[in-house]
Amino acid sequence: MKTSMHRWLAGLALAALGLTAQAADPIRIGSVVSTTGSAGFIGDPQMKTLQMYVESINKQGGVLGRPLELVAYDDGSDVSKANSFTKRLISNDRVDVIIGGSMSGAAMSMIPLVEQAEIPFITMAGAISIVDPVKKWVFKTSLTDRIVAEMVFRDMQKRGISKIALFSENSGYGQSGKKESELVASKYGIQIVTQESYGAKDTDMTAQLTKIKARPDVQAVFVFGAGQGPAVVTRNYRQQAMTRPLYQSYAVCSNEFIRLVGDAADGIRLPCTAMLVAGELADSDPQKAVVSGYAKSYETLWKSEVSHFGGCAYDALMIYLDAVKRAGTTDKAKVRDAIEQTRDMVLTAGRYNMSPADHMGLDVNAYPMLEILNGRWALAR
Questions:
Q1: Which domain CATH number covers 45?
Q2: pLDDT single digits (tens) 160-212
Q3: Same-domain status, 69 and 90
Q4: Are the beta carbons of 113 and 341 closer than 8 angstroms?
Q5: CA distance to 74, 89, 107, 127, per residue, from 83 (Å)
Q6: Would you put residue 157 in left (φ > 0), alpha (ψ -120 to 50) or beta?
Q7: Count of structural domains within the chain
């Protein structure tokens, strides 16, 4: 559904909830995600995931005897709209929590508003600045760009790669990723010998790649960006017949990326949640049941494939509802405290262990490294 506003009113499910639930005030879950625009392939599965589980949970009786109501807006991949819709969620819609921010720029524009309003905010965006330094009311369910860089560099180190080119988007997530990559590269014996950048709306990166290709000391290329840019880079990379290993961040972790670039995707390595390789997980792995269950529900309802991005929304909603149950209330301060006390909670991104010093709760071992082989995701060998 791609209208500017989606309201899945709990009243649609009240007949299944009984008179008690009918009389109860709904738990109002606000959301701002990018279901359209350049980040649409990120925000669309996030919106669908929230819709799906709000309806499913209502059919099961809601939470604390109260139905859920989703009040959600599409920011169209526009930071200013993300800010405006957040103001509306707080002032007009009076929601109990906000889950959103598909892109780092959007999330950062939302943070001052939720902090001032003192409302729990769980975002799916990647920039480390979202939670470092820790902000009292802000949490996140995707790895920081710093950890993403560390996972990529750790894989490079294992493969004997020590000199690389860093190719980053010139705004938002790309620039944050560039900064964090520069900070942690030496920890893994990686030297960034050359750097290039591109604009989020650029349609050809041949010039920058030609410069990288001319560097004989470059052993691999690491692309840090989101949206359509990484797909353009990948297509141009293969067109230039570049054969050195190509790494991407988790921002391309969806089957849509493979469809966008076709055969050019083969061989790319990146860190991503285990959801896309659930069948390769051992039966004893506690994540297998979680990611398999989510994937089955999503694919059955929406007749489309799951992505890492939708999983981030699932994790955010489950973390919030778990905190509400433990707090026994939707009081914002008490729920905030309960989110901060989330421990040993296995979801699609891994095992969450939050604390007053860590509002993400994931570490460098949360995601496996994946590789695209013959147009399919596989655990990297």
A1: 3.40.50.2300
A2: 999 999 999 997 789 989 999 999 999 999 999 999 999 988 999 999 999 99
A3: yes
A4: no
A5: 11, 10, 9, 17
A6: alpha
A7: 2
